[in-house]
Amino acid sequence: MANATDEQGPGLRRNAIGLAGAVIMSAALMGPAVSVYFNPQVSASSAGVATPFVFVLGLVVMLIVANGVMEMARVLPSAGSFYTYVSRGIGPRSGFVTGALMFLAYALLVPAELALIGTYTQDVLAGYGININWIIISAFFTVLMVFLCLRGIVGSIRTATVLFLAEVIVIVVLCAIVLIKGGAHGLTLAPLNPANSPTGISRIALGMVFAILSFVGFEAATTLGEEVRRPRRNVPRAMFFALLFVGLIYVFATYSEMVGFGVDGVHKLIADVAPFTTLANTYAPWLNLLVGLAGISSIFAVTMNTNNGVVRIIFAMSREGMLPQRLSHVHPTHRTPTTAIWFVGVFAVILTFGVGLLSGPFNAYVYLGSILTLAIIPVYILTNVAAIRYFASTRRSERSVLRHAILPVLGILLLAIPIYGQVYPAPAAPLVFFPYLVLLFIIVMAVIAVQLGKRRPEVLLRAGATLAAADTDDAMHLAPAETPELDEPKARS
């Protein structure tokens, strides 16, 4: 079937955005300002001076990992994103677990960013004598996020475009000023040398957890598979362009950050909750306000685009019976999945203020960010496995050994690096518990998927079946050979 909503009610708005909008969706969700403002100092606590190298390694790893995602997006455009890819490439039970992990990752990113925008905006305003509690600020941005998402994807993307361009300009200008002025002690290649990690490869691996977190969101364009023009062409290109562009910004910014503090001042970077504000005060005081505004805009752009992504995952899974049907309701005018938006909004409120009040808003960002990174890594791994299997069977005539075998396997192996770093040597509590928490979540979701297959096998047979329209206006129907099957060969009929 091409569009199940044709019979159930209005679907998502087709051809709503083009390639540029899809690039912005992925790039803005990665949030360059958020990542370079708050992630390098966390990575530096492990990798030390070699933190910029960690981000170089992270970019290489993610470009390789993205290959499998782009290949699946090219042939299976759908709002279901990874859920659809894994359902079709491995099986619906695995697809269900993937969708659950995707929900966990994106749904945790929303409250993580809402807590962060509250505490960061509070600090920025306090610098100008304005005292507003972070709870009020986070509540305001929560309402704004829900409002924009309800109004439609076009308005959300336009808002994200303005915010994204503003943050990139501020970051690049400040970093250029730091380098032109020679930083603290002159330019050096030391930050790009992995040997300068104080505790070796294990701490580079742990530092990569937050480098990978910085790239989470490159795949956001996949959730627009039913709303972007020419999805088979534009969605993969959007991911590649966004990943490369934002990745280069990360490397440029983290190098400038390390040079700005000085290789002997890494301890100051680690202890600084707002290092880019410190750099602005030191090298370009006139940029201080703009740096603060860029951080706020970046955090909100990430929040809004994450919300857009996760509600489309929920929409796709509920449309096919994996979740309650009510969650697939689409507004007849705005063509947005309204029930899913409200569901995610309530979930975000509970976690934002629950975890934020218990641990502090910045710790909420760190803790939730660590968990969601560990949740998204298995999604990337499963998608690359799905690419290997899908092109070895259903799309065998299109199979390329490099793109559909070598690169996916390499991507899977490279993703073991941050997992290793999170487990050995064991980090301090509560970070040490997070891998096992995610593992428990996977086990529970797998059990639910098995039970679903026994009680409602017809639902699993529909998993991943709803795709976007093809590059023409004609609906794209599944060929008999492409009908989704259960994970076990014995279930085939």
The Rg value, from CA coordinates, equals: 22 Å
- Poorly predicted residue ranges: 1-9, 466-493
Task: Tell the overall outline.
Answer: globular
CATH topology: Amino acid/polyamine transporter I
CATH architecture: Up-down Bundle
The number of domains: 1
How many DSSP E strands? 0
Q: Mean of the pLDDT scores?
A: 80
- Report on the biggest sheet: none
The computed structural class is: mainly alpha
For the termini, the CA-CA separation is: 19 Å
Give the topology string: H per helix, E per strand: HHHHHHHHHHHHHHHHHHHH
Description:
The protein is an all-alpha fold. The chain has a single domain, classed as Amino acid/polyamine transporter I (Up-down Bundle). The chain is 69% helix and 0% strand. The protein has 20 helices and no strands. The chain has helices at 5-8, 19-30, 32-38, 40-47, 51-75, 82-89, 92-126, 134-151, 153-180, 201-215, 231-261, 266-271, 275-283, 288-319, 338-359, 361-392, 401-414, 416-423, 434-455, 457-461. Helix 3 (32-38) crosses helix 14 (288-319) and helix 5 packs across helix 17 (401-414). The longest helix has 35 residues, at 92-126. Residues 1-9 and 466-493 have low confidence and may be disordered.
